[in-house]
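Q: Can someone sanity-check these two? First one:
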Amino acid sequence: MKHLLSAFAIAISVVMGGHLLAQESFNLTSPAPMSGYDSLKLSQLPPLQFPKDHSLRSIPAIVDNSLLPYFRPIFCQDGYECGQAASIGYVFTYEINCLRNLPANIPENQYATYFAYDFVNSGSEYTGVSYYETYEILKQAGCPSVSDYGGMSFGGYSRWMSGYDLYYNSMHNRVSDVYSVKVNTIEGIQTLKNWIYDHGNGSSAGGLGCFYSEVNVDPFVFPDGVPEAGKHVITRWGN
């Protein structure tokens, strides 16, 4: 992923139903201020809510959903499609395979990032596209598998997929719900934890989601003798 600005598949929701929003694409080297329209649409994204007793239940201290078969192998993003690498490459791939109980280690069950990216990047590989726009495209048109598309980013930043049968196949892979989780409160953090643990509904598998942040520090490595020794953690984010 790009070091300057990356989207990470961590922990909101991309379940099925609800409102999505579109946001103007922006150049990552010189991001424009969010417009009033986009700010309003963002504020209208419905919050994910669970019953109040969820805040009282006991959940594990650590959950690693990347160990589940629905989480695809790690890949390197291509160009400035960090939002699509996270929202499609990881989160959507994981969630739809979780619903269908399919493994994510084959191209037929992985989803192409450039299909949605090329809709709104103005034909430029140096234009970032918000994952909110991505989910609106996945709501309206769906998303082709990597197998149908020819690869994650086959054809580059200005290619259009040809063939009605491929678009028809894509229509079977759609998003209908996107929710927000505000993590500036204890309640919000608890909602996030419950989503990661079991989708907040007792499922056998937890959920993933997306957030944006600037990455301007090197990861910290946990020392020997502590839990998660040898693993990396980012301790500070940009704005």
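And here is the second, same format, sequence then tokens:
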Amino acid sequence: MAKVRLIPCLDVDRGRVVKGTRFLDLADQGDPAALAARYAEEGADEIVFLDITASHEGRETLVRDVERTADALFVPVTVGGGVRSAEDAGRLLRAGADKIAINTAALERPELIEELADQFGSQCVVMSIDAGRPGPGPDLEGVTDRSRGVRWTVRSHGGRRETGRDALEWAEECVRRGAGEILLTSMDRDGTREGYDLELLRAVCTNVRVPVIASGGAGETRHLVEAARTGATGLLLAGILHDGSRTVTDLRAELAESGIPLRSLPRDGVGTSARPAAGESPGIEREIRTRSDLDRVRFDPLVPVVTQDYRSGEVLMVAWADREAMEATLDTGEMHYHSRSRGELWRKGETSGNTQRVVLLAHDCDADTILARVEPKGPACHTGEVSCFGQVAASGVAGLLRTLRARRAELEANDGSADPPASLSYTQRLLGDENLRIKKIGEEAAEVIHAILRRSEEDVVAESADLVLHLAVALEAKGTDFGKVLEELERRRRA
């Protein structure tokens, strides 16, 4: 049996999480960002975020909600609702989504699946299928004459409209067109807490070669066990969590006791395991996400904290922290340290304004040193230097970015002339001439391709370095931090 993911689902209507039965009689359940953070802390493997009304007026609100939610998480986020084009999908991916779920728009124009798969990769495309037994029902629109002899039909528009399309055939077509995952919701079971439609689930899992997420009807642990044994590799959870009767931690423990393999085993109320399973990242248990994770750290009574810019990798400073400081850091999301000279807690930037937003905390193999990856606001050093180690720490990408910023500042001091004097460097001439930048990026890209196909490894490295340099210059000239490219790569790695 493949490892199973527990996936809380946030059905969002106008910026609030709601829950009903068969997508009707919706009741408010809370703020999406707060709920997502809570479920992630309890051990959720992923979060699904669905705008179930997807009104035109609410589109920008959805993007902001996705940004707020994704910023607080280190688990993948799937977002869907009203996505009708690659532009819609790109906007949500830039806002922090890792995968995009589509439904009605793909039923109306199946080519959309191929467009998204071609542009973003199949791993980003989740096909959401709302399926039920044929029949109009009291709240459904649509015909049923085409549904004769079909065991399950597909519904659109948030499950409100009957299409008459065979659900199994549609699932197979979606995979052929490039969908990398199926989110299968039983409209007959949704919100009932009577268990997943195992017959429907088994039929789809048997007929497609991609992961299937079971949705609609989870009410107790045995329902999750049944779905996992039927073939689902993802278990969607909503009402069972929103009402507070169960937690992700509870469900993980009970599934493990039932012999269901999970992505990671529960530990101290957190979803990462103290000892990673075969094939998983050997360092994941070193991440510090909650106060209980601090139990592993050897405060004596202080530990050194190595603070690093999460985008460039540059070491900014080394300071000391006790447990109080680390608890304050976790509670606020901003770095706190212990001042040995004053013998008290201090928040970085409380007087200077040069704060440090926490991106990741982890301890080393001996649990006697903490690594803090942060987003700095202003310099780390009291001297005004970016790093307490000065330029020495700025090697690799960090050193490149520092140099580019310095060259740009020099050029701006020269009024940013597009025709700078000959005394300026090649980099400054690039920064001052957009046409030259674009021309050189094209030339260097062609050289990289030629080197890969025809030349030595040494040439490949040299030409690749030229391309990266010219790309970094172009981004600096545009005012776009090259570190954001690295940040995006890190987001994709985590996904």
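A (reply): Looked at the second one. Confidence is low (pLDDT under 50) at residues 20-25, 143-147, 265-284. The longest strand covers residues 5-13.
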